[in-house]
Amino acid sequence: MNISIDLLPQRTRSRTGNLPIIPVAGVLSIVAGAVVLTYTFLDTRSNVEALEAQVATQTELLTAVEADFLAMTTGINDYNYVDYFTSMDTLLTNVYKGTIPLKQRIYFHLPEEASVNSYSYVNNGDLSIQITSVSKGDAAVYLHHLLNEQEVSGAEVNTIALEGDEGVTYLSNYTLKLKTLVGEDQ
């Protein structure tokens, strides 16, 4: 047999007209969060659109500045002297023979133990050269080789003189006329 003794007073809680606080607070916080997120999204989207417009404007400005720079630095103008001198060098290379190969051809015919004291070249083809040799015969042989050279149109010995008191070497002065234009030797 079971006997139950309840000594507490019998009260029942009655809920009349009260809203449940936790669910209402949850719904209000969700609505407030949605409003804040919507505002943030719309504000960020307008900022992104403004930045895209600013980037597009700066890109157009950069493209215009780059086009102006390229216009100033291409072709022959006041700002681009490199192209000017390159085109002048190309023109002169196509008109005149190179001076270094001409000089090498002249030096090639020097007799043994002969040396060049002075070498003066003018672009019209006039060349003055002074050499030191050990005999008068070397000066004559050098003149003969110069006259047979393809690049030389005329050569002559101006002077042959003893150099110094010992009389061991001779100083010879030559005047040459060279073919300096491209295609002149044909």
Automatic annotation (TrEMBL):
Transmembrane feature ranges: 21-42
Keywords for the protein's UniProt record, in alphabetical order: Membrane, Transmembrane, Transmembrane helix
Descriptive protein name: PilN domain-containing protein
